[in-house]
Design goal:
Protein name: 3-phenylpropionate/trans-cinnamate dioxygenase ferredoxin reductase subunit
Helix content: 10-25%
Domain FAD/NAD(P)-binding: 14-306
Shape: globular
CATH superfamily of the largest domain: FAD/NAD(P)-binding domain
CATH class of the largest domain: Alpha Beta
Number of domains: 3
Strand order of the largest sheet: 3-2-1-7-19
Number of helices: 9
Radius of gyration: 23 Å
Structural class: alpha/beta
GO molecular function, one term: ferredoxin-NAD+ reductase activity
Cofactor: FAD
Largest sheet: 5 strands, parallel
InterPro entries: FAD-oxidoreductase/Apoptosis, FAD/NAD-bd_sf, FAD/NAD-binding_dom, FAD/NAD-linked_Rdtase_dimer_sf, Reductase_C
Distance between the termini: 57 Å
Length: 410
């Protein structure tokens, strides 16, 4: 990275991770006037791409490989961003400001941004070496699944979280007989409550997906390829493919004794880690929200966090990150949206009808302040709900439930 004399005529910022957070960090740095060298690296060899469509539009053939690229390849050259793919970082030295790579050179940096995303949780189950058992995280995974599914009639999905639910939706629409096996009685109840959890289950069952709860897969059977799964409850489910979606954890493999990484790289409101000149953005972080650290894995957060942190690299500690968490999920003909963050709540308020699949559930604290809200097929509520969560004002609960009163008036 340095010249022959070991010196550089401009600063160097290295970004580890070329997902949505890393790409937006690089682009924002350049667009906000950063004049130094930008090196964007990733262990993946694919051009940077958007991950959410892998389980939805891309899987169903509604968009092609080019359609999920985060940026046109020429953009990186235009913005003078050095894109280094297939590079695995093995260690960093904050004192010397260097990083080492597997089977490659060492790099020097002035500023370092960790945009390493998250890693899949995996299961260890007898028979898990059979062909036809998949995890979905990268483009290579999606390609393998898509190619394999051509002759699949029955598929089992382990886990009823959003990845599993979106895969179930896509595969059901592709004409595949889908069974979901979920360990808990009410999937994602701890995040959204029992009402919303029940609506998830009902949505999938109404679309022909069998959902088995309070059970777990204990064995895969087959000769060379998976042919059935066996559950703890004694069920034997025939299948030709299995997708495992049991969650993710922040990817904090780039480590150092001085780098705090409890539940993600710990950053302050400016994206600064516990080590000077090292920043972290997106899914791999734990960041302050309403006075407490939180960790979320949202596309929208990754974009906005990267932009704010990049600005603070150019203008140190000038703009704190005051983002309201938001994510969405498309399943069948339903769009789910969620604003805010509420690990606990004192009460919920329903606006609309669960039965019609058009409703908003509000999560309030004991002072009747809306901490979060879940929307199902009510996009018109998105803007006033976001404002409500941002403003943190005491709400009239009866008016909140009354669809005859406009939300902006509430």
């Amino acid at each position: 990275m340095k010249g022959a004399d070991g010196l550089s005529d401009r600063d160097i910022t290295i970004i580890i991770g070329a997902g949505i957070a890393g790409v937006n960090a690089a682009e924002s740095l350049r667009k906000e006037g950063y004049q130094g060298r930008i090196v964007l690296m990733d262990s993946d060899r694919q051009m940077p791409y958007d991950r959410p469509p892998l389980s939805k539009e891309w899987m169903k053939g509604e968009t092609d490989d080019a359609g999920i690229l985060l940026r046109e390849p020429a953009i990186y050259e235009k913005l003078d961003i050095d894109l280094n793919l297939g590079v695995e970082v093995t260690g960093i030295d904050p004192d010397r400001k260097t990083l080492d790579t597997k089977n490659g050179p060492s790099y020097e940096w002035d500023k370092l941004i960790l945009a390493t995303g998250s890693s899949l949780r995996t299961l260890s189950i007898p028979g898990d070496d059979l062909e036809g058992i998949f995890y979905l995280r990268r483009m290579d995974d999606a390609l393998a699944i898509k190619n394999y599914m051509q002759d699949v009639e029955q598929a089992v999905i382990i886990g009823a979280g959003f990845i599993g639910a979106e895969l179930a939706s896509s595969m059901s629409e592709m004409g595949i007989d889908v069974t979901i096996v979920e360990r808990s009685a009410s999937p994602m109840e701890n995040i959204f409550g029992r009402q919303v959890s029940a609506s998830f289950l009902d949505l999938h069952r109404r679309n022909g997906v069998e959902v088995i709860t309070e059970d777990a897969v204990t064995q895969f059977n087959g000769e060379a390829k998976v042919e059935e799964v066996v559950t703890a409850g004694g069920r034997r489910i025939p299948c030709q493919a299995v997708m495992i979606g049991v969650g993710v954890t922040p990817n904090t493999g780039v480590a150092h004794p001085q780098l705090e990484a409890e539940g993600g790289y710990a950053v302050n409101e400016y994206g600064e880690t516990s080590i000077s000149d090292i920043y972290a953005v997106g899914d791999c972080t734990s960041w302050p929200y309403q006075g407490a650290p939180i960790h979320i894995e949202h596309w929208d957060h990754a974009v906005n966090h990267a932009k704010t942190v990049s600005w603070n690299i150019i203008h140190p500690q000038s703009t704190p990150y005051t983002y309201t968490p938001y994510f969405w999920s498309d399943q069948y003909s339903t769009r789910f949206q969620y604003f805010g963050h509420a690990k606990r709540w004192a009460k919920t308020v329903l606006r609309g009808s669960i039965e019609s699949n058009a409703f908003t559930v509000f999560y309030l604290d004991d002072q009747n302040i809306v901490r979060a809200a879940f929307l199902s097929n009510q996009p018109k509520n998105a803007l006033p709900v976001r404002r409500m969560v941002q403003r943190q004002r005491v709400i009239d609960v009866e008016a909140l439930a009354d669809e005859g009163i406009a939300l902006k008036k509430v």
